Fold this protein.
Amino acid sequence: MPAENPTAPRPALLTVDDDPAVSRAVARDLRRRYGDRYRVLRAESGGEALAACRELKLRGEQVAVLLADQRMPGMSGIDFLEEAMDLFPVARRVLLTAYADTAAAIDAVNVVDLDHYLLKPWDPPEEKLYPVLDAQLDAWHAAAPPPVPGPKVVGHRWSARSSQVREFLARNQVPYRWYAVESAEGRRILEAAGVDGEHLPVVVTGEGDVLVAPDDATLAARVGLAVRPASDFYDLVVVGAGPAGLSAALYGASEGLRTALVERTATGGQAGQSARIENYLGFPDGVSGHSSPSGRGARRSGSARRSS
Ligand SMILES: Cc1cc2nc3c(=O)[nH]c(=O)nc-3n(C[C@H](O)[C@H](O)[C@H](O)COP(=O)(O)OP(=O)(O)OC[C@H]3O[C@@H](n4cnc5c(N)ncnc54)[C@H](O)[C@@H]3O)c2cc1C
């Protein structure tokens, strides 16, 4: 089944086997059939595969299938699957075993809620690998949550700073997803980020970078808002992007002045926080502060703005 959003990253099929030849062979067979719809990732140890899972989690990407060899030094396939399911609980878990491990694999069905086990060798894949994975992918699509590509904020609902960070993102038109620290997904994100949640909020950018209790300037820079002037010289610098500053900057720029508008929080000023401005010029029926010409400002262009 193809991914529903064509711009979203393709869900991952992650395979782990400590034998590089086997790992490459599994990945090759997976790519041949699924490579156009899924990203096929391979690792050669449980630790390496877990690191990949954490990175995918932080970037808000999806893992559809985890395909693990059972016998690996350091971390067995079952141990890997058990840890990976903490990060991706709905990913389908498949163990790749040699004949001698079949009994252990069957026991593991209960331990890690294994979805299937496959016997090595899996040739021909058309008979022994693809039918199993097709069924697993159908099941995953039926249960998979949508990907979360933008910034994620994990915080405490009663924390002042968590509220400020959410408001800062919202007022700057940066779409984000909020997770209460006590929610299951909030805990999963903190676990993937490798932080204990003592300092909140934790913001994970769309690229998967982790910011612990960031200040506004750091946050602005990391979520794509402009924080530096684009030029060394301006004819006019307006400080404050409330209605007054926006108007001044607009008229300055329309007169041909190279104009910079500097704002410490978000365009719109107080008007941007108003649910309804009753007397905005040109809007006889009123307009919400958020969508007023002031509030609309230069969306997502950030704290240092320039018009020329
Ligand atoms: C809830 C609410 C409802 C309102 N409803 C109405 C209404 O219906 N009709 C009406 O006419 N008015 C209304 N007002 C008032 C109106 O919003 C204000 O009069 C108007 O926003 C004032 O514009 P301003 O640009 O002078 O200042 P502000 O809107 O206060 O903007 C100043 C901007 O400068 C920024 N700033 C300050 N210092 C710095 C610095 N050092 N560096 C960078 N940036 C800085 C601030 O962050 C802010 O964005 C309402 C206000 C509020 C809060």
